[in-house]
Amino acid sequence: MTTRRLRVLVLVCSTRPNALGPAVGQWLTDTLAPSAELLDADLVPLSIGDLGLPFLDEEEHPSTGVHQHEHTRRWSRIVDEADGFVFVTPEYNYGMPATLKNALDYLSPEWAWKPAGFVSYGHTSAGTRAVQHAKQVVTTLRLVPLGATVALRIADVMHENRVAPEARHAEAAEGMLAELVRVARALTPMREREHPASVAGPLPGSYARRLGPDDAAEVTVLQRCCWMEEAIVNDTLAIPALHESPADIRAWLADWHTTGLWRDAHLLGMVRTRRTDTDLHVGRLAVAPDLRGQGVGRWLLHLAESAGEGCARIVLSTGASSHRNIALYQRQGYALLPESEEAGAVDLVKGVGV
C-alpha cells in the first residue's frame, strides 16, 4: 500500500449568500492544519459554489463515468483524486442542502471506498439531522461515513458576529480527522482494486496497478526479499537491487513504467519496462518467494510484454547462474545472446510477436 500523503477534500456545502459555511470551513482547516501535517494529510478546501454545478444535467448515468460537460469532468477529477472528504454542511428543514445532494448525485465510482466526515452547524440540532440525511445517501455511493462528527450549535459558537468554536469542538475535529486518516488508509486496497486503471491479478483478490515514487518503501522490501536468493545463487552481493536506497528507487520509479501486483495492501510482485529505440527493456521481474510456482512471474512477464507493440524485440537480463530464471524465460520464447553487457549476467531477447 502506498505511503503517499493523503488528500482530504474539505467541502463547504452551502451556497446561500452570507452563509456561515465559509467561516466554519476556514476555522476547520486552520484548526486541523497541525494535525494534518502530523498525519501526512493535505487538506484541500473547496466550496460547492465555486464548482459551477447546475442541477444534474448529464444524459448518461453517473455509474458509466461518461461525462459530457466540462463542469462534470472537472468535478470528477477533483473527487477521484481525493482520498477522503469532510462535508461542512448546514441543516435546512431537517435535511442537507440541495447543493450537496446534487454534487453527490453527479458522480458514482469516484466516491467509492473513501471515508466521509461531517462538520454540521445549525440551531436546535446543531445540524445533526442534516448529517443523518446525508449518511443515507453517501452509503449508497459506497462512501464510508465516520462515527466521529463535529456538531456546532450556532448560539454556542458565535461571538461578536464571528465564528469562534470552543476547545471541545477543536478536539472533536482533531479526533474526526484522525479517524478519517485511519479509515482512508485501511480502505486504500479496495479503492485501488476497483479503480479503472487497475487490472485483476492472477491470484484471488489480487490486482495490478502502476507503481510510482510513493511506492518506494514497498518496492525496497520486495527487492531485498527477492534478490537475496539471486545473490546466493550467483555468489555475489554486487546486485544493484540489494543496495538501492528508497531514494534511489523513487528516482527510477519516476523513469520506468513499473507495474506492481497487490493483495491486502501487500506488494506481491512487480516488473518494469522502458523503450529504447526499437527495443523494449524488461527488468526487475520479482515475485515474493512464498508465491513462486503459482504462475505469478509468467503473468507479470506477459503483462510487461503487452507494452512491446511497435518494438522489434524485447530484451531482459538475469544472473548467469540463475538457471530457474533462464529456464522460465526460454519457455516463454526468449533466446540467450552470446554476450552480455554486464559481468556475471546473461541477456535474453525475444522478437515481438514470437
Distance between the termini: 35 Å
Structural class: alpha/beta
Strand order of the largest sheet: 9-10-11-12-13-14-16-15
Could you list the spans in which at least 5 consecutive residues all have pLDDT below 50? none
* Sheet of most strands: 8 strands, mixed
> Which strand-content bin applies to the residues?
25-35%
**Helix-strand pattern, N to C?**
EHEHEHEHEEHEEHEEHHHEEEHEHEE
Determine the fraction of residues in helical runs and give it as a percent range: 25-40%
- Provide the gyration radius in Å: 25 Å
Number of helices: 11
* Overall pLDDT confidence: 93
Q: Give the overall shape.
A: elongated
> How many extended strands?
16
How is this fold's topology laid out?
Elements: E1 6-12, H1 21-38, E2 41-47, H2 70-81, E3 84-90, H3 98-105, E4 115-122, H4 128-140, E5 144-145, E6 150-153, H5 154-157, E7 158-159, E8 162-163, H6 167-194, E9 199-200, E10 207-211, H7 216-234, H8 240-243, H9 246-253, E11 257-263, E12 266-276, E13 279-287, H10 296-305, E14 313-319, H11 323-331, E15 335-336, E16 345-351
Parallel strand pairs: 1-2, 1-3, 3-4, 4-5, 4-6, 13-14
Antiparallel strand pairs: 7-8, 9-10, 10-11, 11-12, 12-13, 14-16, 15-16
Helix pairs in contact: 1-6, 7-9
